[in-house]
Specification:
This protein has 258 residues and is mainly alpha-helical. It has helices spanning 2-20, 22-26, 33-49, 52-76, 81-94, 97-100, 108-122, 138-151, 159-175, 179-199, 204-228, 238-257. Residues 27-100, 165-218 form the NTP pyrophosphohydrolase MazG-like domain.
Length: 258
């Protein structure tokens, strides 16, 4: 009951800000989209860092965006907070018939199969691919598209088919002449790379992010070593940079072991 009172109190603050704050009162659903995206990524970063305080802070900021969207729609007469919560409650119960009904689902695969079947009945689409959100990050979008194709049997039987396709796409990129052709072939390579992730149960978006972070750590360490020599990147030859890169690689590898 206390939690409900606190949520209502927080929502009352949002309503007051919408009426009296010059900035908050001018915001629209659309104008807040960049903040929703930013707060989502900041929350992800806090989760990956593992900082309890950062997670608490970013979850609050994320909740703020949710409350603002509800308040704006309430002002328009579209729906209320009660409508949103009731809709979520009904959906969770409806999509978990193995918990709230008499359907049997003892494995994760059975649960997801039921979830997908119920979702299909709820949302009618002209095409199977219409169910995928086109605003997802590209690699995540590719993953979902490929999983739909896989479910209807349009996929390779083994991972070797994916490897062969990757080699084929790389060769096509090598042969590409125009910028448009190169862009298309590079896109095909990334698409296949995402699909390779599906076969080995690795999320390509997450894998790429980790590779980005690894590169930055090594690059920053290279920069530290150059500073110790009284140099910057422009002062070093490519051979020197390669040597520093290998040193940074070994240092971080040893740190990971310890």
């Amino acid at each position: 009951m206390l939690k409900e009172i606190k949520l209502n109190r927080l929502y009352d603050i949002i309503r007051k800000l919408r009426k009296e704050c010059p900035w908050d009162s001018k915001q629209t659903e659309e104008s807040l989209i960049p903040y929703i995206i930013e707060e989502s990524y900041e929350l992800i970063d806090a989760i990956e860092r593992g900082s309890v305080e950062e997670k608490k802070d970013e979850l609050g900021d994320f909740l703020l965006q949710f409350l603002l969207q509800v308040a704006i729609n309430e002002e328009k007469g579209n729906f209320t907070m009660d409508d949103v919560l009731r809709h979520l409650e009904e959906k969770l119960i409806r999509r978990h018939p193995h918990i709230f009904g008499d359907v049997k689902a003892e494995t994760e695969e059975e649960v997801m199969k039921n979830w997908d079947e119920i979702k299909k009945k709820e949302k009618k689409h002209a095409y199977l691919m219409d169910s995928v959100n086109r605003n997802l990050p590209a690699l995540m979008y590719a993953k979902k598209v490929q999983k739909i194709a896989n479910k209807v049997g349009f996929d390779w039987d083994t991972i070797e088919g994916v490897y062969d396709k990757m080699h084929e796409e790389i060769n096509e990129l090598k042969d590409a002449k125009t910028r448009e052709e190169k862009e298309e072939e590079l896109g095909d390579i990334l698409f296949v790379a995402s699909h390779l992730g599906n076969f080995i149960d690795i999320d390509a978006e997450t894998a790429l992010k980790k590779s980005n972070d690894k590169f930055i750590k090594r690059f920053n360490l290279m920069e530290d070593m150059l500073r110790e020599q009284g140099k910057n990147f422009e002062d070093a030859s490519i051979d020197e940079l390669e040597e520093l890169w290998q040193k940074a690689k070994e240092i971080l590898k040893e740190k990971k072991k310890s």
